[in-house]
Amino acid sequence: MEQSKATNSGERGSNYGLGIDTGGTYTDAAVLDMETGTVLCSAKSLTTRNDLSVGIGNAIEKLDRSLFRCVRLIGISSTLATNSVVEGKGCRVGLIVIGHEAAANVPVDEMVQLDGGHNLQGDRKAELDIDGAREFVESVKNKVDAFAVSSYLSVRNPEHEIAVRELIKSATDLPVVCGHELSSALGFNERTITAVLNARLIPIITDLIISLKKVQKSTGITAPLMIVKGDGSLMDESVARERPVETILSGPAASIIGSKALTGLNDAIIVDVGGTTTDIGILRDGRPRLDPEGAILGNWRTRVKAVDAFTSGIGGDSRVVVAGRKLQLSPLRVVPLCIASSTWPSIKPKLQALRGTRAKWVPSYMDLDSVPQSTELYTFNRRFNGEPLGQEQERVLELVTQEPRTLYELAELLNVHPLALNLRKMEGQGMILRIGLTPTDMLHAEGSYVEYDAEASRLGVEIQAANAEMEPAEFIATVKRMVIEKVAGEVLKKLIYEEAGEGKMCDIANSLVNNMIKGDGRRDFAATVHLNKPIIGIGAPVGAYLPGVAEIFHTQLVLPENSSIGNAAGAVSGNVMESMEMLIKPKKGMGAMENPPCTLHWMQERKDFESLSEALAYAREEGGRLVREKAMAAGADTVELIVDNHRKEASLDRGWGSNILLEVNLTVTAVGKPRLYFEACR
Asked: Which of 132, 165, 200 is a domain's end point?
C-alpha cells in the first residue's frame, strides 16, 4: 500500500493525533497535526478479522515512527459494530423480556418472557416473576455469552430490570445489559433491540481494543485510546467496552467529520464507499446531522444516538452473483478473489481448472445468498468457543483449514449433495469466510485499481461472464454500472427521507426513483434530479464509481487528496459528549396548578416531589452531576454543562383560563475536549 511521507520530523511540543479506522476490508492509519488538521503521513493495510492487531500493526508500521513521540491522542473509528449487525454476527445472547412480548426478529439465541413491567406512571403493571428469571438464567448460563434485560416501560421505572440484573450478576460472571441504561426514550421494541445488540457486540469491540493495546505496546505510543461514537463524539476505551452499541455508525460519523476536516466544506452529501457498506450522510452548517429517533441498521430501529446516515449493504466486497444467466449484487460480504489469491496460492489453479466449464443448475426458488457459485470458496477464520460442533461441521473446519475449498469440493469429500451442505450458520458465526467475485475484482480485472492479484480477478470474471453469456468487458461494465446505480439510488432515497420523513417507498415512488437514476428504457418521459450540494467522496474506490453518481445528479464531486483515509482523519477530530434525558410529569389531575406535585422519571429511579420547582432543581443537580461524571469517565478534561428544557402544555378554551402542564423534558449534556489533548497543549 502507498503511504504519504511525513512533512516534518515532529518537533518537541507538537500535538499530533494518530487516527485509525478499522473497516470490514481495510485498516487505515494517519498522523495529523491536531492544531492545523494537516495529514502528516498515512497508510493502509488489510483488516485481519481473526486477529485485528495484525492489520492495525501493518498499517501503523508503514507510518513515520519519528512522529510517534509527539502523538498525544489515539482515536479509532470502526465499521466493525455496524458490519457485525448488518451481517448478523456477534456473541450468543440470552434475552429476558418483562411484561411484554419481544419482536419476532430479535437476534438472540435464548429468550424468555416473564410477568412484570410498569405503566406510564411508573407503577407496577404486575409483580416481577423473579423465580422464572432465576430458572431461566440457570438453564442457559452455559449456552450464552451475555444477557440482555428489557422490561416494559422501564424508562418510567427501572426497578424490574435492576432486580434481574442483580440476580444475573450473582449467578454468573457474564455481561448484563439493561434497556434503561442505554436509552430513556419510549419504544419497547427499539430499546430491546438496542440492549440485545449491545450485548452481542461486547466481544467484538473488546477484541478491537485488545488488538489496539497490543499494537500500542509494540510501538511504545502511550497516548490515551478513544473510540468514535455514532454521533461523532469520542469516548474512552473503558466506556466503549461497556457500551459498544454506541459505536454503531462510528465509521460514517468519522467520515463526515473527516470530510469537513479534509475539505473545509460546511454543506455537502458525504458518500463513503467501503468494502462492506456504503454510508451516506449529510454535513449541514459544519456539523453532521443526527437522527432524532435513533440509528437504523438493517431492518432494526435502535435507540442509539448517531449521525443520520444511511447504511447500504453495497460495497467493494459485495457478492457478485450469476443465477440463471442473470447478474445480481448481494449485500453479503465475501473476500475478493484478488485478495484471497494473494494469501492462498492454491486458489488460482482451481480457477484455471474451471475455465470453459458451465455453472451447475440450481433451483429458482433459492434465495440469492444461497445460490452456489463455481468461483466461490470457503476458508477457516476462527473456532467458535461454544457448544460442541456436529461431526459434519468439524469435518468442514478441518478441510477448509488445509486450504480454501469450493462448495462442490466439500460436498464430494463429505459425500453429500451440495445443496444439502448448509454452511450459512458457520459463516454467520465467523468460523469460516467465503471467497468470491466482487466489484473490487472488476476494478482489478480492468486494471483501474490494482493492489492484489489481478490475474485471479480476470479468471473469475472470465468464468462468470461465460455463465452470464457475456463478454468479460461487458460483464465488468455491467457490474460497475450496477454499483453506480445502486449508490445513486441510495443517495436519492436518503434525501427523499430527509425531506418527507421515513416510510416505505411505494411503487410509484420507486418507479420515479428508478427513472431518475437509470434514465433509459422510459417510454413516455424522463425524470432528472439536480443536487444543490456537492458530493464528497470518501474511500479508496470512489474514483471508479462516484463520478458516475455525480453525473446522474448534475452536481460537483469533491475527492479530497486524502479521501482514502478520511475516516482515520475524523477519528481524532471530535469532542467528548455525554447526555441524559429526564422526564417530569405532574401528578394526575394537578397539571393546572402553578407549581404542581410531580414525578421524575430517569435512568436512576422514579422519584416524587412536592412541587415542579423541587423536581427541576433535583433533576438539574443530580443529572448534571451524573452526566459530568460520565463525561469525565469517557475521557473529557474540563466539562461544559448544557441544560435544555422543553415544556409541553395543553391550552384550555374555557374553565380556569390557564394552560395545563403535561410534562417537562429535560436534557443535560456535558461537552469537553479529550483530556490528554489539553494536557499536551499546556
From this structure: 200
pLDDT confidence of residue 87: 67
How far lies 243's CA from each of 180, 199, 201, 239, 682, in Å? 12, 9, 9, 6, 31
Give tens-digit pLDDT for 587-624: 887 878 889 999 998 877 889 999 999 999 999 999 99
User: Do 463 and 331 belong to one domain?
Assistant: yes
Full residue range of the structural domain in which residue 127 is found: 89-200
Task: Provide φ and ψ at 183, rounded to 5°.
Answer: -155, 145
In eight-state DSSP terms, residue 419 is G
Cell 429468550, residue? 111
Amino acid code (one letter) for 593: M
DSSP string, 571-636: TTSPPEEEEEEEEEEEPTT-TTSSS--EEEEETTEEEEESSHHHHHHHHHHHHHHHHHHHHHHTTB
> What is the separation of C-alpha 155 from the centre of its chain, rounded to a whole number of angstroms?
25
Residues 6 or more apart in contact with residue 505 via CB below 8 angstroms? 493, 496, 513
Helices assigned H by DSSP within 419-565: 424-428, 439-446, 454-467, 472-500, 507-518, 542-553
Cα 123 from Cα 497, distance rounded (Å): 38
Give domain status of residue 590, yes or no: yes
Distance set, CA 621 to CA 233, 242, 352, 595 (Å) = 24, 25, 71, 19
Calpha distance 323→366 (Å, rounded): 10
Same domain, 606 and 466: no
Residues in the chain, pLDDT under 70: 1-13, 50, 86-87, 297-299, 360-367, 384-387, 501-504, 520-523, 652-658, 676-682
Count of alpha carbons within 13 angstroms of residue 170, beta-carbon side? 8
CATH label of the domain that carries residue 169: 3.40.50
What residue type is assigned to position 306 of the chain?
A
- Which is nearest to 478 in space by CA: 437, 436, 511? 437
Q: What is the pLDDT of residue 436?
A: 96
Candidates 404, 353, 351; CA nearest to 381 is 404
How many angstroms separate the CA atoms of 116 and 161, rounded? 10
Whether 596 is in a domain gets the answer yes
Rg (CA), the chain: 27
- Contact residues for 551 (Cβ-Cβ < 8 A; gap 6+): none
Instruction: Answer for the pair 202, 246: CB distance below 8 angstroms, yes or no.
Output: no
Contact 3, 43 (CB under 8 A): yes
What is the CA angle 101-103-108, rounded to 5? 100
Q: Hey, what amino acid is at 59? A: A
Lookup: cell for 621:
443537580
**Are residues 470 and 596 located together in one domain of the fold?**
no
Q: How many CA atoms lie within 13 A of 450 on its CB side?
A: 11
Count of domains for the chain: 3
CB 253 within 8 A of CB 309: yes
Phi and psi, residue 307, nearest 5°:
-60, 150
470 plus 586 within the same structural domain: no
Classify strands 146-151 and 176-178 as parallel, antiparallel or unpaired. Answer: parallel
260 and 266 Cβ atoms separated by less than 8 Å: yes
Which residues, 6+ apart, have CB-to-CB distance to 499 below 8 Å?
Answer: none
Contact status, residue 53 vs residue 211, Cβ threshold 8 Å: yes
Task: Read off the amino acid at residue 617.
Answer: A
Give domain status of residue 647, yes or no.
Answer: yes
In a domain, 470, yes or no: yes
Q: Is 665 helix (H, G, I), strand (E, B) or coil?
A: strand
Domain-ending residue, one of 171, 200, 229: 200
The two beta strands, 335-336 and 278-284, are unpaired
∠ Cα 416 344 455 (to 5°) = 105
Site of grid cell 475516516: 567
